[in-house]
Amino acid sequence: MLLSEPYWDHHIPLPKLGPLHSRLVTAFVALICFINSYDGDFVFDDSEAIINNKDLNPDSPLSNIWKNDFWGSNLSSNSSHKSYRPLTVLTFRINYLLAGGLYPVGFHMLNITLHCLISVFMVDVFAILFGGPAQCGRGVILNLSPKASFLAALFFAAHPVHTESVAGIVGRADLLCALFFQLSFLVYCKSFQGGDKKLSVLCIIGSILLCAVAMLCKEQGITVLGVNAAYDILFVCNLNIYELGQRLLSRRKSADIGELVRNGLLMRLAILFLVGSFLLYARWRIMGTGPPSFTEVDNPASFAENILLRIVNYNYYYSLNAWLLLCPWWLCFDWSMGCVPLIKSASDWRIIWPLVLWCCLIGLVSQALCSQDSNTRRVGFVIAERVLYLSSAGYCLILAYAVGYCSLHWRKHKRLLRAAMLMLLCVNVARSAQRSQQWRSEESLFTSALSVCPLNAKVHYNVGKNLADRGNQSAAVKYYREAVRFHPKYVHAMNNLGNILKERNELQEAEGLLSAAVYIQPDFAAAWMNLGIVQNSLKKFEAAERSYWNAIKFRKKYPDCYYNLGRLYADLNRSVDALNAWKNATMLKPDHSLAWNNMVILLDNTGNLAQAELTGKEALKILPKDHTILFSLANVLGKQEKYKESEGFFLNALKINSNVASCHGNLAVLYHRWGKLQLAKKHYELSLRLDPNAPGTKENYNMLKRKLEQQHKTV
C-alpha cells in the first residue's frame, strides 16, 4: 500500500534550499547561538565531573572509567550517583590529553561542534518523520519533506533550552547520547530501504550497537529502542492501532496476525524488546543492583506525603518542562528545592496545568495512533521523550507541522506567517546567545538565577559559595543564611556557613550550625570534621576527638581529618598519637604538605632530630619544591650543625619564595652560628625589611652588630 505524498513541499513558506545548503544553514544557526560560550570557564557541575574527577588524569588507569560513575566515584560506593557514562568521561579525558591539562576552551568547542552536528542530523530525522522513504513488503513511503524538516531543524538548532547542554561542559552526556540516538534511529530506518535482506539485518544490528553506545554516554540512550519500535509500527507497517485493536477485540478475520509475522514486524519488535531487557539488566548489574540514593533536596516531590501528591507533582514538573519548550525565557541552572513549591492539596490552582498537559498529549497520541489520515499519523510519538534536549525535537516537529497546517489553510497570510517564523527564530537565537553568555562564568550563571528562582535555596547557596571562593566572605554569609532560611535542613549551606563563622571566630554559632547539620545528616563526614575543628578551638577536646572519629567512620579515606586529628593530639601533648594521625594522612594523600611539615616540626621540637631529618627528606622525594618542608628540614640540619647542607635547603626554599621573613631570619641565625657574619647581617636585614616585628630577629641582629663592632675594635 502506497501512502499519499505529504503537502509540505508546496505550501510551507520557506525559500528553496538544496539539502547541502539547508544543512550548512542549520549548522551556522546552531553555531551563532552558542559560539560565545567557547572561552567560558568550568562552571557548576563541571567542578565535580571534570576538575575534581581523577579519571581524567592520564596517570589514572584507563580501566577506572569503566568502574567509576560519571563523577569519578566507585559505583559500589554508597555515595555514588550511579550515573554510568564511561564514553562521555572518555571524551573528557581525550580533551585533557589534547590540551595538556584542564583548559576549558577545548571542552567547550567540542560541545558546540557536537550540537552543530546533531542539528544537521536533525534535518534527516525530521525528514523521515515527515514522510521519508521506507519499505514494508508491498509498498514504499514516498518523498522526503525538505522544507518541513529544514524548518524543524532550525528551531531545534536555536532553541534556548539547549544552552545548559551546550554551554555547560557536563551537558556533553546529553549531546553524545542525542548524537548516537539519532544515528541508531537513522540506521534502523535505513534497514527498510531497498530489498537487500542482508543489508537490513546489518542495519538492525548496527542500530542496536549504536543504542548501546548512546546508553554508555547517558542512560536515556536506551529509549531509542522504543522510538525505533514506534517508527516500525506507525511508519513502516502503517498500522492503525485503534483499528487493529477493534479487530482483535471483535475477533474479525481481517485482523490477520499472520501478516505481521510475514512482514517481520513481530520478530523485529521481539528483538528490540529482548535487547532492551538485556541492556537494562546489564545496567542494573553495573549499578550494583541498587538504585542511587536521593535526598529531599534533590527531588522534593519524591518525599511528598502520599503517592497521589507525588504523582500530581511529577506531572506538574512535566508541564513546567513543556512550558520551557514553549517559552524558554525563564531558565535556571537548577530547579530543585524551593524553586518550584510543591502542590500539597487539590485546591491549589496549579493542578490545572498537569491536566492541560495530558489533554494535549492524549490528543497527540490519539492522532498518532488512531487517525485515518496516514500523513497526520506521522507526528506525535517523539513528544514522549523525557530527556529535555531530545524532547525539544518533538516540540520542533509539532511546531513545523503547525506552520505547515497554517500555511495550507491561511494562504492569504503567507507573508505574515513567514515574518512570524523569522521573528520567532531570531528571538530564539538572541535568547540562546544571551543565555550562553550567562553560562560563561559561575558568577553570571548563579546571579542570573536569582531573578528566576528567588525562593530556591540552592541558588542562594551557589551564589554564596561563588562569593566565598572569590574572597568575599561577608557577602557570602548573607546568601548562606538565606539558603538556610529557605531550606532549614540544607546541611551543605549550614556546613559552609559554619566554616566562615569559624574563620571569623564566631565559634558558638558555628558549633550550633555544624551540630545541626550532623544531626540532620549523621553521615555528613565533612561537617563532622569541621565541627571537630570548632570544638577544638573551644577547648572541647573530648568532643572534638569524637567528631573527628565520626568523620573517619563515615569516610574511611579522609586525609584532612587525620591531619586535624593530629593537630588535636599535638595540642594535648600526645605526640605519638599526633605522629600516627599525620602518618595516616600522608599514606592516604602522599602530597599532604601540612601533615609532612607538622611531623618534621613535632620531631624537631621533641628532640628527635635524626628522625625529623629522615622524615623531611622522605617528604621532599614527593614534594621537592615545597618551601615549607625545605625550611623545616634546614632548621633540623642547622641544629645538628650540618651547616653546609642546611644552607642549601634554606637557599632552595628562598629560590621558591624569597619573601618569607622567617626563612631569611633562620638562615641568618645559621650563618651567625657558622661564623659567616656578613652573610648573617645581610639576611637579618632582609628579614627585618620584610617583617620589622619578626620575633627574636631584632635581638639577634643587635647581638650580631655588637659582635661585629667588637671585631672591628680588635682589628
Topology record:
Layout: H1 8-11, H2 19-34, H3 46-51, H4 86-99, H5 104-129, E1 134-135, E2 140-141, H6 146-157, H7 163-167, H8 172-190, H9 197-217, H10 224-236, H11 241-250, H12 257-262, H13 265-286, H14 307-326, H15 352-370, H16 388-409, H17 414-438, H18 442-452, H19 457-469, H20 473-486, H21 491-503, H22 507-520, H23 525-537, H24 541-554, H25 559-571, H26 575-588, H27 593-605, H28 609-622, H29 627-639, H30 643-656, H31 661-674, H32 677-690, H33 697-714
Antiparallel strand pairs: 1-2
**SS elements, strand count:** 2
| Strand portion | under 5%
The rounded Rg comes to 33 Å
Low-confidence runs of at least 5 consecutive residues: 1-13, 132-144, 374-386
Give the end-to-end Cα distance, rounded to a whole number of Å: 120 Å
Query: How are the strands of the largest sheet arranged?
Result: 1-2
